[in-house]
UniProtKB/TrEMBL annotation:
It comes from Hibiscus sabdariffa. Residues 84-208 form the At1g68980-like TPR repeats domain. Residues 373-396 are annotated as: Disordered. Belongs to the PPR family. P subfamily. This is At1g68980-like TPR repeats domain-containing protein.
Length: 783
């Protein structure tokens, strides 16, 4: 006889009935009887099997936890432990209330095997309980529950507030993808989350690169619902939808995140959306806009913004500094050295006037007997709280803390979440402040830093505008007098040119100083003379000696040493002796140029030597900018924004003919322009091929925004082979891809594509297209 097998299975009576009815059993009758093996006090259900004529008995104990059902069948015996679903629900609630998460999950798993999802209140309590833990393990379990509910079309079990709370917890734990997916599901099911709630979720998402990208995508998706007055605010039925509309804080958060992680073209799409949904800019948003325009090279937009900045009365010193730093940087990008140098000179002039006014006022106060210390403290600069460094903000919000769900649910207007969003926004904005390098403030007055001098000098030298450079530096010296003639900015520039071997440029700048009547010390002439001797340039040596005599410059001993050594090498013994005699008669002490020698050696050893060292580092390490690319990019962007693609194509051709190489921004404008008018997939494919060949021969880099624009266009047009190429390139570059967006896009436009069996006869091209589509479908998780 076959050996009897036994196993334990947790199940409810309804589950058993379904199990039996779906198997080979034919349930003829169910009756109550006594089963002697368990005693007369235990009730037994008997189930008749018409196939085997065996009696299947089910023993039900008075104690629910010990109910046993014994089935005797031809195949063997199955021992089943049944539990009451109502009691199991209570046990789940008790476990989650006592933070026994492992036990909670086991009980929930048992219920899923017996009855499927627990009742609605239990499901939502599980979500909020796991969210309160702020433990990634349990947060992922909770998110899995939400996913399963939507897959089984049981989203009616999920309530809005618990889902918002879970999304907040996921965002706080750096899980932006599931956090954003829950928000998207809420919008899809028309359980619209208020903007005060989802802006806080956005704030925590924006502290990571994928989260910042998703935050921008969410605002674009939600904002699209409100574009061009699509929602009538006068209808009461639209009140929940209107409450979800993105506000200024939400835009500030998303834009700041884009700036911090370099997705500035996505940020510009957000700026284009703002007027279409009626969002007005505040002081913070004006500064964030300036950063975006500077990064994208929109100088004309910055100039338009300048009027609003100058007229605004509620901007702080730090905000003014950030704006003018952006404007100055943009002038440098476009090679507009006149505008940049004039800005610096204007700052120096105003700073000098303010300093003189402050000195006068201080003297008046002292004469009146006032305490000067009090005044100085009052005018010592902007509010210290505004100058907090990046890490000085209260970082308690970034730690793993979350309000309890009870407190969360009592705050019906989500006021606390709105305040959290604003506090995180301040942290993001503080990080932007640290990127300001060209301008500083003193007593509320803008002043240029050494960094802007370095960048300007480098730009003048690259443009070979030595006369303009000398004129600018001389004017700057008059506004901000150096400590000595050998410590001026112009002298540092000349010495830097000598160190780099640019002797002609150094000599020209020295001549400009002499013509302008600006005196300088002997160290500059000495170092240039030595460099000429080392380079074996006798004509220049003679010319420089003549200039030094005209300027009344007395050369030091090291200079004479170099000249004597040079004469000896040239076999001019008489000349060498003459120089030695001249040096002795002039009683020139030895070692007079040691200070400059130490300066040059410090620069060579990557030491700090002030402006000169910074200039040398900038010239050696910095890349030469092609300002013409920015001009043409703006032209192409304008045509693409107006959907004048024929003109954009002509501008691109002209740009190439003038020798300017298109960059990622150029291609991004073209692709988004083609995508906006639709149907131009062949042109986008040609651009893709051109871009790949260009990238193989030039240092042009593919960035996330550019590749994402290609991917969107290819998926929209059904070019899945090309789409898979883009995906492969993005994954190799470890770039984030919003799979949810592309899954939605596929279902919207290609839901029925290649659903049936493959035809018997198909060309190689058709086979390749089919395989590409199926591969993409699998990638987004639809197969």
């Amino acid at each position: 006889m076959r050996e009897m097998r036994r196993s334990i299975i947790a199940a409810s009576p309804s589950f058993l009935y379904a199990l039996l009815s779906r198997s080979h059993f034919s349930v003829a009758r169910i009756c109550r009887c006594e089963y002697p093996g368990y005693g007369s006090h235990r009730s037994v259900f008997c189930v008749s099997d018409s196939f085997s004529n065996n009696l299947t008995t089910v023993n039900v104990s008075s104690s629910v936890s010990n109910r046993l059902m014994l089935f005797s069948t031809m195949a063997g015996t199955i021992l089943v432990q049944a539990r009451d679903p109502a009691k199991l629900n209570m046990e789940i609630l008790n476990a989650i209330d006592e933070w026994r998460y492992s036990e909670t999950w086991k009980l929930y798993d048992q219920h899923m095997q017996m009855e499927g999802f627990p009742r609605k209140s239990v499901v939502n309590r599980l979500l909020t309980g796991f969210a309160e833990s702020l433990d990634v393990q349990w947060l992922e379990k909770a998110y899995g529950m939400v996913e399963q509910a939507f897959q089984e079309s049981k989203q009616n079990l999920l309530e809005k507030d618990p889902l918002i709370y879970l999304s907040l917890a996921l965002a706080k734990c750096n899980l932006p993808v599931p956090a954003s997916t829950i928000l998207r599901k809420l919008v899809e099911t028309e359980q619209f989350p208020p903007v005060t709630a989802w802006s806080a979720i956005l704030a925590y998402m924006s502290q990571t690169a994928p989260g910042a990208y998703l935050a921008a995508e969410l605002i674009l998706e939600i904002g699209y619902l409100f574009q061009d007055g699509r929602v009538d605010p006068r209808k009461k039925s639209n009140a929940p939808l209107i409450a979800m509309k993105p506000n200024t804080t939400a835009f500030n958060i998303a834009l700041a995140g884009c700036l911090l992680f370099g997705t500035t073209r996505k940020a510009e799409q957000l700026l284009d959306m703002m007027p279409r949904i009626g969002v007005k800019a505040d002081a913070n948003l004006l500064i964030v806009m300036a950063h975006i325009y500077e990064r994208n090279g929109r100088r004309e937009e910055l100039r338009k913004l300048q009027r609003h900045i100058d007229e605004s009365c509620n901007l702080t010193d730090i905000q003014f500094r950030q704006f003018y730093n952006c404007l100055l940087t943009c002038h440098l990008k476009f090679g507009d050295l006149d505008s940049a140098s004039n800005m610096v000179l204007e700052m120096l002039r105003k700073a000098k006037e303010a300093h003189n006014s402050l000195a006068t006022a201080t003297l008046v106060l002292e004469a009146a007997g006032n305490d000067n210390k009090t005044y100085t403290a009052h005018t010592s600069g902007p509010n210290p709280s505004q100058n907090k460094p990046d890490g000085s903000h209260n970082n308690s919000l970034t730690e793993h803390q979350i309000i309890s769900y009870d407190e969360f649910s009592r705050d019906r207007n989500f006021v606390k979440l709105g305040n959290e969003a604003k506090e995180v926004l301040l942290i993001l904005l503080a990080k932007l402040q640290t990127q300001v390098e060209l301008i500083t403030t003193e007593h509320g007055i803008l002043q240029p830093t050494e960094k802007i001098y370095v960048k300007l000098v480098k730009a003048f030298l690259e443009a070979e505008k030595l006369q303009d450079l000398a004129r600018f530096l001389i004017k700057a010296e008059r506004e901000d007098s150096p400590v000595s003639n050998d410590d001026s900015a112009l002298v540092h520039v000349i010495k830097s040119c000598i160190s780099l071997g640019w002797l002609d440029q150094a000599h020209d700048l020295l001549d400009e100083m002499r013509f302008a009547g600006v005196r300088t010390g002997s160290s500059v002439y000495a170092s240039l003379l030595k460099a000429y001797c080392k380079a074996n340039r006798p004509r220049e040596v003679t010319s420089l000696l003549r200039d030094a005599q005209k300027a009344g410059i007395q050369l030091d001993s090291s200079c004479y040493d170099s000249l004597i050594q040079y004469r000896v090498i040239q076999q001019d013994t008489q000349g060498a002796l003459g120089l030695f005699k001249e040096m002795k008669e002039a009683k020139i002490p030895r070692g007079g140029n040691a200070e400059f020698e130490r300066l040059v050696e410090g620069c060579a050893g990557n030491g700090e030597a002030g402006l000169m060292a910074k200039l040398l580092r900038e010239i050696k390490e910095g890349q030469k900018l092609d300002s013409g690319v920015h001009d043409w990019n703006n032209v192409i962007h304008f045509f693409c924004k107006k959907r004048l693609m024929a003109d954009a194509e002509k501008a691109l051709a002209k740009m190439r003919s003038l020798g300017h190489t298109p960059n990622a921004q150029t291609f991004h404008s073209m692709v988004t322009g083609y995508a906006a008018i639709g149907g131009k997939y062949i042109e986008v494919t040609e651009l893709w091929g051109e871009m790949k060949s260009l990238a193989s021969s030039t240092p042009m880099k593919f960035d996330q925004e550019l590749l994402d624009s290609y991917l969107y266009t290819f998926v929209r047009g059904g070019f899945f082979v090309r789409a898979n190429e883009v995906i492969d390139m993005m994954e190799k570059g470890d770039m984030f891809i919003d799979k949810y967006k592309y899954r939605t896009l596929y279902l919207k436009y290609h839901k029925t594509l290649y659903k049936g069996k493959a035809p018997k006869y198909q060309t190689e091209a058709q086979l390749k297209k089919r395989e590409g589509a199926l591969s993409f479908k699998k990638w987004v998780g639809l197969s």
